[in-house]
Amino acid sequence: MCRPDFPALRRPSYVHRGGLHEHRKGGGRRVRHQHASAWDDWVEGPACSGPAPVATPGRHGKPGDRTNPGRRGRRGRRGRRGEEHSMRKHVVVLGANFAGLTAALSVRHELHGDVDVTVVSPRANFLFTPSLIWLPFGKRDRGDITFDVEPTLRHHGVDFVQAAATGLDPTARTVTLQDGSTLRYDYLVIATGYRNDSDVVPGFAENAVTITTLEDAERAGHAWELFLRDPRDVVVAATQGAGCFGAAYEFLFNLSFQLRRHDLHQRVKLTYVTAEPFLGHFGIGGLPHGEQLLGMFLRKEGIDSRLNVGIDHVAQDALVLETGEEVPFGYGMVVPPFLGQEWLTAVDGLTDAKGMVAVRDSYQTLKYDDVYAVGAAAAVEVPWTTPTPVGIPKTGFPTEVMAHVAARNIAAQIRGEEPTDEKAFGDIKAICVMDAGNNGVVILADKMLPPRKHGVLIPGPQAHVMKLGFEKYFLWKMRNGYVQLP
Predict the structure, then answer these.
(1) Of these residues, 188, 209, 211, 244, which one is catalytic?
(2) Active site (annotated) includes residue 2
(3) pLDDT per residue as tens digits for the range 12-48
(4) Is-contact 380 392, C-beta < 8 A?
(5) Which of 76, 187, 438, 449 is the S-S candidate for 426 at Cβ 3.0 to 4.6 Å?
(6) Which candidate in 149, 236, 432, 457 is catalytic?
């Protein structure tokens, strides 16, 4: 066992309260240093700089068995049931966006800091994904909707490792990182998000754009600039199996608003193609009067539509539907289905066919009590069958709820209690603001999925103002780590 010798994995501050000192590097940024510590217990890797520290018995060693000379022994803390905990527990969170950041900071909050938490992510930034709908039109750039997570996490006593996870051994309780080193955990939260299923529709990646990631939205912006030089018909589509219909609607109406701004609305035909069985289904079964409201929006904007249809393939200048119809375009934005991270599928009994992690209502995985999954990485079963398959949206609000439930359950386990907090995905409240350029719709329901008692859609320009305000508030909230705020 030895210290890793690569820049992405700094030796974090959580592992040792003593032996920690700081100096200023070159008169500038403050750099934290740490002598031999429990980081040597948590990380194993092939690369060493200098002699390796004395091996320790690891997680299962007795309190007095640790031979690492830089590690001071800690008195065990007693849980509510009287169990003796020989050392502080280590929670690893994979992912640093909505789900990951919320879960990591919530665990620290629940245990009043008496836990070691490490966040692992290949990206150094938090991304406010709801604002990606504006980026292609130049209303936002990446600097407006991202921030560096490391200072936020450090301020709250959470360590950050910028690296991609590539493997998981639930039996050994280790996560393998991209350089081959392993990181040990007592509890794991998988918040690795999604990746686009580019294979669901042949030609999608080559001949259309999407807005589901920051890089995708930037490419969509470049394509928009080219479109403005040679305007032709436009198609916005959500494929079979897609679940992010809200983003498709928002982009559709924002695009229509931009066409008006550029005096192109009368010159360009705009078509919406969707797998939804009816307008306003949203992947959640629809809400009262939603079909009529969305139909009114489309008629007002002069938008044509194709409903309940799959896409066969995307040609260079046309969307070819499964019915054989071709819908020509000069600019095409397509929302695909999402998949889980591919490396997770190698873990026995962890994921479904799409690579999403199967979970209980406690957000523990079906097979492993100490492994959780939240956010887009968690599998949600579609409770209905539609003629053309549709998915379910896992948006920001339910993602936060899932992360808080997981954090409370992990805290309970660390205290020696049973993880009894449960909230089925379908029972989470639906709270969403759909932007439409200078208009919009506020969507509220008592449950994400039917049967529901209450559901309402409130249209009007106030929705646009609310979305602008929420963007500023949420970025402030997450940048400061105030995840306990609504």
Answers:
(1) 244
(2) no
(3) 433 333 333 333 333 333 333 333 333 444 554 533 3
(4) yes
(5) 449
(6) 432
